[in-house]
Amino acid sequence: MSATAPLLEVDDMRVSFATEDGLVRAVDGVSFSVAAGEVVAIVGESGSGKSVTAMTLMGLTRGPNARIAGRAMFDGTELLSASERELQQIRGASMAMVFQDPMSSLNPVYRIGHQIVEQIRTHDQAISKAQAMDRAIELMERVGIPRASERLRSYPHEFSGGMRQRVMIAMALSCSPKLLIADEPSTALDVTIQAQILEELRTLREQTGAGIILVTHDLAVVADIADRVVVMYSGRVVEQGTLDELFYDPLHPYTWGLLGSITRVDRDRSQRLPAIPGLPPSLLRTPEGCHFRPRCSHAFGRCTEDPALRAAISDRPEHLDRCWLELEQKRRLRVVGDQIGLASAEPVIS
Amino acid sequence: MSGEAETPGAPQAAFGAGETAEQPEAVGDVSLAGVAPSGANGSALMEVEHLRVLFPLKHGLIIDRTIGHVHAVDDVSFTLHAGETLGIVGESGCGKTTLIRTLVRLIDPTAGVIRFRGNDITKASRRKLEPIRREMQMVFQDPQASLNPRKRVNQIIRTPLRLRGVAKNRIDAEMRALLTKVGLQAEHVNRFPHEFSGGQRQRIGIARALAVDPKLILLDEPVSALDVSIQAQVINLLGDLQDEFHLSYIFVAHDLSVVRHVSDRIAVMYLGKLMEVSPAEELYDKPIHPYTSALLGAIPIPDPAENRARDRPLVIGEPPNPINPPSGCRFHTRCPRAIDICRQVEPQLTEYAGGHLAACHLPQNVTAEEIAAAARSDGTPLSAGTDAPRRV
Asked: pTM of the prediction?
C-alpha cells in the first residue's frame, strides 16, 4: 500500500443481533482495509461472520434487533453511521455487491434487461431509456454473455447459474463501482464456470482499478485471485496478511488447520487429512479467551486470556495474528509431516 | 484402500465374453438366489452394461405427446470391484446423480443391465430388491433434507437395525456402538436432526447407511455441503469405515480434489457419457481426454506460487442441452482440438495400458505405440463408430 489513503478502512466493527436465545455476536471487532485495485479475501467457515461483515458494509444488516458499532470509512463517507439516504447514493453506484445465489438475487418476474436498466437509471437520471438499454447490452457483452441484445429480453429462469452470476456482475458494474463486494460469487457454480467468473473479476480489477472484497470459504479460490487475506473465526479476525505470508508463513493455528484440511490435486494422497477436531463455537456462548482454544491442539494456560491481534514479525507490520504462542514455537508446531497443517492430536475439549 | 484384489491390469475383464447387452425384455425372470452368470468375475461387485436413462419430455394439453428426451445417462458401462472406491465426476447436469440413483433403482433405467454380485437387478421387483437394498445404501448430499425432521436419531437408526434382524435386546447396544463409530456421542440418541450441525447430520446419514451392514455405499456429494474443516473430518471417517467394514464406495462429486483423495479409480462424465475412466493418480498426471484436462485446469490450486506458474487454458462456454446433445463426440462444441471426425463420429471407448479408458478421437498424453496397443473396450457405447484413435 502506498501513502494514499485506502479506499475502505474498517475499524473495530462490531455487529450483534438480539435474539430470543440471547445476544449473537456475529462480528466482534473486525478491522481491515482495502486499497483501490486490490483484492482482499475474507476467509472463514459458516458462522465466522464473514458474510455479516460484507453485508454490514452495504448497510444490509440494519434492523431493530441489530447493534452495529465501529467505523468504516469508504471514499470519504462513514458507512456505519450514514443515513439510509446517503447509503442509497453509494449502494449500487460507487459500491456494489454480488451475492452467492444468483437465482434468489434476481427478480424472477422481470426481464433481465429491465433489471439492469432499472439500476442504471436509478443512479443516472439524465440517461434515456434507449441509451440505458445500449449500456445494458454493452455490460452484458463485457461479462461474456453471448447474443446480449436477444438475451436482454430473457427472464432469469431462462439463464443457467453461471449466466445469472454474469448478469449479477454486469449489474454490479453498471455504475463503475470503486468497490465490489463479492459474497461467495462462484460457490454455486461448476469449476469450469467458476474459472470463467474469476477471470471476469480479474479483468474487472485490471480495467477499472476497482477494489474487490471477496468473501469465500475456498482457500483455492483465494490463492487464485487475492492480494491480501483476512481469516475470520467466530466473529473475529484471527490472522491477516498478504497472500504469500498467509500461505507460506501462516501464524495462527486455525489457519494451519484450514490449510491442512483441504484436499489438493497437486499433492500426494496421504491416508488422513490433518482435520481440525470439533465444531466452531456457538456465537451465543463464545469461549472465554481465544475463541479457537477448544479446538486448538496447542492451547495452553494463557489461552484463557484474550490475545490481541498483533504483528509477530517486526519487519512485517501488516501480517497480524491473534495467538499467544511465540513465533519460534509456531514455526515448529505448525509442521505436520513435511506440510503445514494442524497437528491432529485428540480434541482437547470436544 | 482395503487389500481386496484389484488387479489394475484387467479391470475390464468382468465384461463377459459373448454377452449381448441391451436386452431389457429378457431380464424379466430374475433369480436373485441364483448363481452368478457366466463370465462374471469373482471380484466384481457391481457391473453396469450400456445403461441408459432417458426422461421423456411431454407436451400437449389433452394428450401428452413425447416431444423429446433428456439424455441423462446415455450408454454407460463400468465395473466396480469389491473394496474399491470409484469416483464419478462431472459438471452439473452430466448425469452423475441420475446414474447412481439408477444403480439403487430409485430411477428405472430405459435400457441396459445392472448386475449386483452377479444378480441382474435391472428389472427386479420391489420385493426382490429388498434384500439387495440392504447390501447397497445411499448417503445423500443434503443431510438436512435426507433425515426425517420429526424422528429422533433413535428412530432413524433403529429402523434399519431392526430390518437387518438384530435381536431386540441387542438393538440399543448396536445403536450406541454405531453412533460412537461415526464420531457422535451415544447420549445424543434422543435428539432431533435439527439439533445437530451439518457435519453431524451427515454422520447420522452415514450411521443409518451402515446400520444394515451394507457391502456398497453410494455417496452423492457427501461433503459438498460442509465446511472445509468438517469436510476433512467426514472424508477421514469414510476412509476409516471402509477399512473396518471392507466397504466399496461409489463417490459422486463435482470437486475433483476431494474425489482424487478418496478414489481408487475415477470416471469422468459429460452429458450422460463416460469420457474417461482411469486409476485415480493417473487421471491427474496423464489425462487422455481434453475434457479431463479442461476440468483439471479449471480447479484453482491452494498454493499462490503454483497458481501463478500454471498455464491454465479456460474452457469456453457451458455444457450444451442434454435434450439435443451434440452429434459425434459430445464435447466437440467446447473442445479446443475438435476436427471434422469429432463432429460426425462418436468416439469409441478405448482401453489403453493400465486399464485407462478414454473416449476421444485425438487422445493426448499417449504415444503412437500406446495407441496401436490400445483396444476397443467392451464398454464402448453401441452408437459409437469403429474408428481407432489417431495421433495429432
From this structure: 0.82
